[in-house]
Design a protein that fits this description.
- This protein has about 180 residues and is α+β, with helices and mostly antiparallel strands.
- The chain has a single domain, classed as Gcn5-related N-acetyltransferase (GNAT) (Aminopeptidase, 3-Layer(aba) Sandwich).
- About 25% of the residues lie in helices and about 35% in strands.
- The protein contains four helices and eight strands, in the order βααβββαβαβββ.
- A hairpin with a 2-residue loop joins strand 6 and strand 7.
- Helix 1 packs across helix 2 and helix 3 packs across helix 4.
- The longest helix has 16 residues.
- The structure holds coenzyme A.
- Coenzyme A binds next to strand 4, helix 3 and helix 4.
- This is RimJ/RimL family protein N-acetyltransferase.
Protein backbone atom coordinates (compact mmCIF):
# COMPACT_ATOMS: atom_id res chain seq x y z
CA UNK A 1 0.00 0.00 0.00
CA UNK A 2 1.30 3.48 -0.77
CA UNK A 3 1.43 6.12 1.96
CA UNK A 4 -1.69 7.67 0.45
CA UNK A 5 -3.73 4.50 0.70
CA UNK A 6 -2.31 3.33 4.02
CA UNK A 7 -5.34 3.00 6.30
CA UNK A 8 -5.67 5.12 9.42
CA UNK A 9 -8.14 5.85 12.21
CA UNK A 10 -9.96 9.13 12.73
CA UNK A 11 -13.22 10.42 14.24
CA UNK A 12 -16.41 9.95 12.26
CA UNK A 13 -17.50 12.92 10.08
CA UNK A 14 -20.87 14.06 8.77
CA UNK A 15 -19.60 13.39 5.24
CA UNK A 16 -19.31 9.63 5.96
CA UNK A 17 -23.07 9.03 5.75
CA UNK A 18 -22.96 7.41 2.30
CA UNK A 19 -20.17 5.04 3.41
CA UNK A 20 -22.15 4.01 6.48
CA UNK A 21 -25.24 3.38 4.39
CA UNK A 22 -23.22 1.27 1.96
CA UNK A 23 -21.51 -0.74 4.72
CA UNK A 24 -24.80 -1.60 6.38
CA UNK A 25 -26.13 -3.09 3.13
CA UNK A 26 -24.16 -6.28 3.89
CA UNK A 27 -26.54 -8.92 5.31
CA UNK A 28 -24.21 -9.68 8.24
CA UNK A 29 -24.40 -6.04 9.35
CA UNK A 30 -28.07 -6.38 10.29
CA UNK A 31 -27.31 -6.66 14.00
CA UNK A 32 -24.55 -4.05 14.21
CA UNK A 33 -26.94 -1.19 14.85
CA UNK A 34 -30.44 0.11 14.19
CA UNK A 35 -31.98 -0.51 10.75
CA UNK A 36 -30.07 1.56 8.18
CA UNK A 37 -32.77 2.13 5.60
CA UNK A 38 -32.07 5.64 4.31
CA UNK A 39 -29.50 8.47 4.44
CA UNK A 40 -31.14 10.04 7.47
CA UNK A 41 -30.52 6.81 9.45
CA UNK A 42 -26.84 7.00 8.48
CA UNK A 43 -26.71 10.65 9.53
CA UNK A 44 -28.20 9.72 12.90
CA UNK A 45 -25.72 6.85 13.24
CA UNK A 46 -22.84 9.27 12.67
CA UNK A 47 -24.27 11.77 15.18
CA UNK A 48 -24.44 8.95 17.74
CA UNK A 49 -20.82 8.00 17.00
CA UNK A 50 -19.34 11.53 16.83
CA UNK A 51 -16.22 12.15 18.85
CA UNK A 52 -16.91 12.62 22.56
CA UNK A 53 -20.63 11.97 22.10
CA UNK A 54 -20.36 10.67 25.64
CA UNK A 55 -17.44 10.58 28.11
CA UNK A 56 -17.76 6.80 28.33
CA UNK A 57 -17.34 5.98 24.65
CA UNK A 58 -15.12 6.56 21.64
CA UNK A 59 -15.72 5.55 18.01
CA UNK A 60 -13.06 5.53 15.33
CA UNK A 61 -13.67 5.36 11.60
CA UNK A 62 -11.19 3.22 9.64
CA UNK A 63 -10.24 5.43 6.70
CA UNK A 64 -8.71 4.38 3.40
CA UNK A 65 -7.99 7.25 1.01
CA UNK A 66 -10.71 9.44 2.52
CA UNK A 67 -13.40 6.76 2.62
CA UNK A 68 -14.65 5.37 5.92
CA UNK A 69 -14.63 1.57 5.58
CA UNK A 70 -15.06 0.44 9.14
CA UNK A 71 -15.69 1.24 12.76
CA UNK A 72 -14.04 0.37 16.06
CA UNK A 73 -15.96 1.54 19.10
CA UNK A 74 -15.29 1.37 22.81
CA UNK A 75 -18.22 2.00 25.08
CA UNK A 76 -19.19 1.55 28.72
CA UNK A 77 -15.80 2.91 29.79
CA UNK A 78 -15.96 2.84 33.52
CA UNK A 79 -13.44 4.31 35.93
CA UNK A 80 -14.00 2.28 39.09
CA UNK A 81 -13.00 -1.05 37.58
CA UNK A 82 -11.23 0.50 34.58
CA UNK A 83 -13.13 -1.59 32.03
CA UNK A 84 -14.67 -1.03 28.60
CA UNK A 85 -16.48 -2.88 25.81
CA UNK A 86 -15.10 -3.13 22.26
CA UNK A 87 -17.03 -3.64 19.02
CA UNK A 88 -16.12 -3.44 15.34
CA UNK A 89 -17.21 -3.84 11.76
CA UNK A 90 -15.60 -3.47 8.34
CA UNK A 91 -17.41 -2.82 5.05
CA UNK A 92 -17.58 -5.90 2.83
CA UNK A 93 -15.36 -4.28 0.17
CA UNK A 94 -12.49 -3.83 2.64
CA UNK A 95 -12.55 -7.17 4.48
CA UNK A 96 -9.95 -9.90 4.46
CA UNK A 97 -6.84 -7.74 4.59
CA UNK A 98 -6.31 -7.49 8.33
CA UNK A 99 -7.96 -4.11 8.78
CA UNK A 100 -10.24 -5.03 11.67
CA UNK A 101 -7.42 -6.74 13.58
CA UNK A 102 -5.07 -3.78 13.15
CA UNK A 103 -7.76 -1.24 14.01
CA UNK A 104 -8.91 -3.07 17.15
CA UNK A 105 -5.30 -3.55 18.32
CA UNK A 106 -4.66 0.16 17.71
CA UNK A 107 -7.67 1.31 19.73
CA UNK A 108 -6.70 -1.02 22.60
CA UNK A 109 -3.14 0.35 22.58
CA UNK A 110 -4.46 3.92 22.50
CA UNK A 111 -6.73 3.32 25.48
CA UNK A 112 -4.10 1.48 27.54
CA UNK A 113 -1.69 4.34 26.88
CA UNK A 114 -4.13 6.81 28.47
CA UNK A 115 -3.64 4.78 31.67
CA UNK A 116 -7.29 4.76 32.75
CA UNK A 117 -8.36 1.42 31.29
CA UNK A 118 -7.10 -1.95 32.48
CA UNK A 119 -9.50 -4.49 31.02
CA UNK A 120 -11.26 -4.47 27.64
CA UNK A 121 -14.02 -6.93 26.86
CA UNK A 122 -15.80 -8.08 23.73
CA UNK A 123 -18.19 -10.82 22.76
CA UNK A 124 -18.85 -12.43 19.42
CA UNK A 125 -21.45 -14.94 18.31
CA UNK A 126 -19.97 -18.44 18.37
CA UNK A 127 -20.97 -18.78 14.71
CA UNK A 128 -18.93 -15.72 13.69
CA UNK A 129 -15.40 -17.18 13.32
CA UNK A 130 -14.11 -14.12 11.44
CA UNK A 131 -14.86 -11.97 14.47
CA UNK A 132 -13.15 -14.54 16.70
CA UNK A 133 -10.07 -14.40 14.47
CA UNK A 134 -10.05 -10.59 14.74
CA UNK A 135 -10.28 -10.77 18.54
CA UNK A 136 -7.42 -13.29 18.74
CA UNK A 137 -5.21 -11.32 16.35
CA UNK A 138 -5.89 -8.14 18.33
CA UNK A 139 -4.60 -9.80 21.50
CA UNK A 140 -7.85 -10.88 23.18
CA UNK A 141 -8.12 -14.17 25.11
CA UNK A 142 -11.22 -16.32 25.24
CA UNK A 143 -12.77 -16.47 28.71
CA UNK A 144 -15.75 -18.69 28.06
CA UNK A 145 -19.02 -19.36 26.33
CA UNK A 146 -22.11 -17.38 27.27
CA UNK A 147 -24.93 -19.74 26.38
CA UNK A 148 -27.77 -18.35 24.26
CA UNK A 149 -26.92 -14.80 25.33
CA UNK A 150 -28.20 -12.99 22.24
CA UNK A 151 -31.61 -13.11 20.58
CA UNK A 152 -31.93 -11.93 16.99
CA UNK A 153 -35.48 -12.36 15.77
CA UNK A 154 -36.62 -15.76 16.96
CA UNK A 155 -33.13 -17.27 17.11
CA UNK A 156 -30.77 -17.30 20.07
CA UNK A 157 -26.97 -17.39 19.86
CA UNK A 158 -24.12 -18.51 22.09
CA UNK A 159 -21.51 -15.79 22.59
CA UNK A 160 -17.76 -16.23 23.06
CA UNK A 161 -16.59 -13.86 25.81
CA UNK A 162 -13.09 -12.40 25.36
CA UNK A 163 -10.90 -9.92 27.17
CA UNK A 164 -7.59 -8.16 26.87
CA UNK A 165 -5.73 -6.72 29.85
CA UNK A 166 -3.33 -3.79 29.81
CA UNK A 167 -0.69 -6.23 31.09
CA UNK A 168 -1.22 -8.79 28.30
CA UNK A 169 1.55 -9.00 25.72
CA UNK A 170 0.76 -6.75 22.74
CA UNK A 171 -0.24 -8.68 19.60
CA UNK A 172 2.08 -8.92 16.61
CA UNK A 173 0.07 -6.69 14.30
CA UNK A 174 1.12 -3.41 12.77
CA UNK A 175 -0.80 -0.58 14.41
CA UNK A 176 -2.55 2.14 12.40
CA UNK A 177 -2.00 5.88 12.67
CA UNK A 178 -4.69 7.83 14.53
CA UNK A 179 -5.31 11.33 13.14
CA UNK A 180 -7.55 14.36 13.62
CA UNK A 181 -8.44 13.80 17.27
CA UNK A 182 -9.69 17.06 18.80
C1 LIG B 1 -15.61 -9.61 11.46
C2 LIG B 1 -15.07 -8.51 10.54
C3 LIG B 1 -14.97 -7.23 11.37
C4 LIG B 1 -13.68 -8.90 10.03
O1 LIG B 1 -13.12 -7.79 9.33
P1 LIG B 1 -11.78 -7.95 8.46
O2 LIG B 1 -11.18 -6.60 8.25
O3 LIG B 1 -12.05 -8.80 7.29
O4 LIG B 1 -10.91 -8.74 9.50
P2 LIG B 1 -9.35 -9.14 9.38
O5 LIG B 1 -8.97 -9.14 7.93
O6 LIG B 1 -8.59 -8.29 10.34
O7 LIG B 1 -9.36 -10.61 9.95
C5 LIG B 1 -10.32 -11.52 9.50
C6 LIG B 1 -9.90 -12.86 10.06
O8 LIG B 1 -11.02 -13.71 9.98
C7 LIG B 1 -10.67 -14.85 9.25
N1 LIG B 1 -11.89 -15.27 8.61
C8 LIG B 1 -12.62 -14.62 7.69
N2 LIG B 1 -13.70 -15.35 7.37
C9 LIG B 1 -13.64 -16.47 8.13
C10 LIG B 1 -14.45 -17.62 8.29
N3 LIG B 1 -15.59 -17.73 7.63
N4 LIG B 1 -14.07 -18.58 9.15
C11 LIG B 1 -12.93 -18.46 9.86
N5 LIG B 1 -12.13 -17.38 9.80
C12 LIG B 1 -12.48 -16.41 8.94
C13 LIG B 1 -9.59 -14.40 8.30
O9 LIG B 1 -8.82 -15.49 7.85
C14 LIG B 1 -8.80 -13.49 9.22
O10 LIG B 1 -7.99 -14.22 10.10
P3 LIG B 1 -6.40 -14.35 9.87
O11 LIG B 1 -5.90 -12.96 9.62
O12 LIG B 1 -5.91 -14.96 11.13
O13 LIG B 1 -6.27 -15.20 8.65
C15 LIG B 1 -15.99 -8.29 9.31
O14 LIG B 1 -16.16 -9.52 8.65
C16 LIG B 1 -17.34 -7.71 9.67
O15 LIG B 1 -17.48 -6.50 9.82
N6 LIG B 1 -18.36 -8.57 9.81
C17 LIG B 1 -19.72 -8.10 10.09
C18 LIG B 1 -19.83 -7.44 11.45
C19 LIG B 1 -19.27 -8.29 12.56
O16 LIG B 1 -19.43 -9.51 12.56
N7 LIG B 1 -18.62 -7.62 13.52
C20 LIG B 1 -18.12 -8.27 14.69
C21 LIG B 1 -19.22 -8.41 15.65
S1 LIG B 1 -18.70 -9.21 17.14
Amino acid sequence: MTAQTEPFLRPWRAGDAESVLEAFRAPDMAHQGPPMLDPSAATRWIADHRWAASPSEFSFAIDIAGIAVGNVAVRDLESRHQTGWVSYWVAESARGRGLASRAVATVCAWLFLQGETFRLELGHRANNPASGAVAARAGFSVEGLQRQKLRYGTERFDVVACSRLATDPPPAVELLRIVDLP
